[in-house]
Amino acid sequence: MNTPVFYKEKPIFGFDLGHNTLKVMQINTSSKQDIVSSYGHIEFDEKAVNDGIIVDTEEIAKQAIAEMHRQTGPLMINPSGLAERGLLVRHLVMPEGTAGTTEVMNYLAKDISEDTYINIMPQYRPCGRAWESPTLGRSLQMHEFREAINAALKAGLTRLDKI
Questions:
Q1: Same structural domain for residues 66 and 83?
Q2: Rounded Cα gap, residues 19 and 129, in angstroms
Q3: pTM summary value
Q4: Residues 53 and 104 in one domain
């Protein structure tokens, strides 16, 4: 991907990459208070994603995660247990491994840091037209969540939410 969808001179507050959407939030640090100054939202045509015309969503996610880590470093938690600064990755586990959990965990450990804090989320529930899909038309099974935790640990990631 040649054109980034975020501004490298502004700190990234967060991003959300869905199947056919991307949202990027950035902070304006030039004001007296840090405020969210830009919120980009790009919607991809679902047919283009499914047909393989748009193939860079993974690269967008990698660029954004790497930039957030560069700007803030690993997640720092104060003695009260509150996050103060740093990268926290939230990963939604999908049925039958469709979220690419093993690949995501390997990428985070190898290319970002084994000290990356991961929130592995098992709360996927089918909504809307997901019921039409044999893969996505069901809730996550407990063994799939356990497999995601094991994938993170096998990759060398140990900063996981307590289960």
A1: no
A2: 13
A3: 0.72
A4: no
* pLDDT, tens digit (0-9, with 9 covering 90-100), for 136-160: 899 999 999 999 999 999 999 999 9
Domain of residue 12, residue span:
1-71
| Domain shared by 157 and 109, yes or no | yes
Q: Which DSSP string corresponds to 41-67? A: EEE--HHHHHTTS---HHHHHHHHHHH
pLDDT of residue 41: 40
Which positions ≥6 away from 99 have C-beta within 8 Å?
91, 92, 93
Question: What is the tally of structural domains in the chain?
Answer: 2
Residues 152 and 129 in one domain: yes
Can you tell me the distance from the alpha carbon of 163 to that of 147, in angstroms, rounded to the nearest whole number?
Answer: 13
**79-113 pLDDT per residue, tens:** 998 888 888 888 989 999 988 899 999 999 999 99
**Looking at 20, 55, 71, which one is the last position of a domain?**
71
Instruction: State both tokens at 37.
Output: 């100054």
